[in-house]
Amino acid sequence: DAEGTSSSYSIEACEIVEVDIERAKCAVKELEARVRDRARTEAKSSSVFIHFGVHSTLRGYRLERVAWNECSFRIPDAAGRKPQGETICAEDGGLEACLRTVIPVEEVVDRIQNLGHPCEASDDAGRYLCNFIYYGSLKASAQVTSDRVSDCASLFVHVPPFSVIDESSQCAFVQDLLRVVAELYA
Hints:
Radius of gyration: 16 Å
Strand content: 15-25%
Largest sheet: 4 strands, mixed
Strand order of the largest sheet: 1-6-2-5
Shape: globular
Order of helices and strands: HEEEEHEHEH
């Protein structure tokens, strides 16, 4: 039970992914496999993949509604890759193609703001690794849902550095975010 609410949730896994395209692809595949494995043993389940990335210029939190089918890295990833104007998934169309979360972002933002956290919705996850992993995650969660394996969704959250909002305040934000998403999506 999430602090007296009727929704309950558990955190199944938490992983820090290196800023690397190939590692991001593997992480998304592992998430999808974990949901498929769990669905074999549970009658009904819902899963939400929540990703966090630091955005150096933010003063609050930003929940991303959209991921774009574009890689245009302004700096190289950890392996030195710096794609420019490339699609993430060619079969999805061109660079203007996008995927949207099924999470009701505006409602999450409203509830988070009412809990005292500076938060906004966004349609631009950038074109770096945050957008890259979000696109893959949205695609994987949609596939799991369409295969009728499990109800599955994805959300990407940009957070400011700890120099802007301290670590304990960000931990409180994450707890509130998890509870709100569980209440709205469970």
